[in-house]
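ZP: hey, is the nickel (II) ion complex queued? I don't see it on the tracker
AM: it wasn't, my bad. submitting now with these inputs:
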Amino acid sequence: MAVHDILRMGDPRLLRVAQPVTEFDTDALHRLVADMLDTMQAAQGAGLAAPQIGVDLQLVIFGTGERHPRYPLAPPVPRTVLVNPVITPLSPPEGGPAVEVEDWEGCLSVPGLRGVVPRFDRIRYTGFDAFGDPIDRTVEGFHARVVQHECDHLLGVLYPMRVRDFRRFGYTDLLFPGLDAAQDD
Ligand code: NI
């Protein structure tokens, strides 16, 4: 159990392409997951990627299993540990090309700011949990957005790199004056 410092944008370790996990169900991997859960909870995050605490591995955690206080309108996302993820954009159920949708995002590595980011509305993601058991889900909306945001960290991509209209990027307290001051990322 340990809460780690979260690296902030500008730290070159956030720009690396993370290495795949090769050994599952090890003490070291379970300890890393426990530390990341502690760190995410302490920061009230919706997700956290291993590179954000300086660990160069393809591992993300996300979800709380219940509604998130910072995203009260979003449906709950199951608490998930996802290792070596692969994301595939999916067509809408009625067919046609995969659709992108825009919504506001924040990031614990970019505190105090929010921006509008396009993401695929519907994705399939696969990978493994910390025990090496496979995960294979088809999701949409907020769940899909969280997964794409977290997995971007494994490619060295922070959400501001995906912002297309910088008129919709700024300080949270100015963009959303009603938000609690503590909810600043
Ligand atoms: Ni982030």
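AM: back. The chain has three helices and eight strands.
ZP: great, adding it to the tracker
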